[in-house]
Sequence to fold (399 residues):
Amino acid sequence: MKPDDLLLVLNAGSSSLKFGLYRAGETAPARLARGQFRDLDGAARFVVQLEDGAAARERPSPARTPEQALAALLEWLEERYPGLRLAAAGHRVVHGGPRFAGPRVVDSGVLAALHELVSLAPLHMPHNLAGIEQLQRLRPDLPQVACFDTAFHHGLPLREQYYALPREWHARGVRRYGFHGLSYESIAERLPSVLGAAAEGRVIVAHLGHGASLCALHERRSQATTMGFTPLDGVPMATRPGQLDPGIPLWLQREAGLDVAAVEDLLNHRSGLLGLSGTSGDMRELLHDPRPEAAEAIDHFVYHVHRAIASLAAVLGGLDALVFTAGIGENAPLVRERIVREARWLGLQLDAEANAENRTRISLPDSPVSVWVIPTDEEQRIAHHTRSLLTATAPGESP
Fold:
């Protein structure tokens, strides 16, 4: 791989295609652009932000499917960067199951194994895999790398991995996997430059976005996390309920007459903040909604995030730092303030002005536990893994 070669990072959804473009570089990838095709099921738009400092550009797109968007993206790359070779593509893949503990070059065997995991993350996996297969059709000779959101948690202690089920089920893959691993890896990579020596201590990272989870780190490795076998577990999210009595889905089927597909739809698409508020799973909208149902949804979210922080602090035996990241974590000062207020018994002391301004450190200088806002960069980690894996793998060698 040459320094001027291009690396494409893709995150495919049902009605969007997010991307990042990187130059491979001498030692590490450097971002050239990022953007997305959005609203592919309606008035589709192509949005791109170049790293030259120019404002984001947006224009209508004729693409109506992710595959059409991907074809349009490849055409744009050739027009924008003539003479530069697209060397590889890296993909965010939500679930790696028990087999994939790190990024992998995609071949037919890897792809077949990933299709077996679709039922564990039905909101994400079909679109993740469709993006890989679409690019295979468009560029069959282009190397592709799958980077897994579960990989960061692969070394969880056994007491965190196991559910209290007969051991045969663990042997068949029923275990706590954890998710948002690329985000946690991104934060863990940055912690020394932000926290100094405290980076190796007891740190909780709160990835709060449309999907939400928290992770306890010690020596920057995952010790416990709130999501489990699937991304449904943990704290409430935009459309997912979070922690749920396992008897509820059974009752819904036995007493309410819902079939498996209906229960799956309820838990993945109609619960969480959307279910509680009755109108929206978007925290930005709920914060401006005067209805009591919106306030109750926010209260529920704050309460359960605080409860998760308390639980993870118990795992760590205390707390040195709390980090907020992702959409809500990075951009919702009121939500952060309420969470920190609930957790002040742990030693968190908020700097109200710093919090309102979304500064990096939002705790008072003498706060026993420091509090931070650190943007996550999952794309950069995917680009890093793609470059590293393909540079280390000789032609004809299987990683």
In short: Residues 394-399 have pLDDT under 50 and may be disordered.
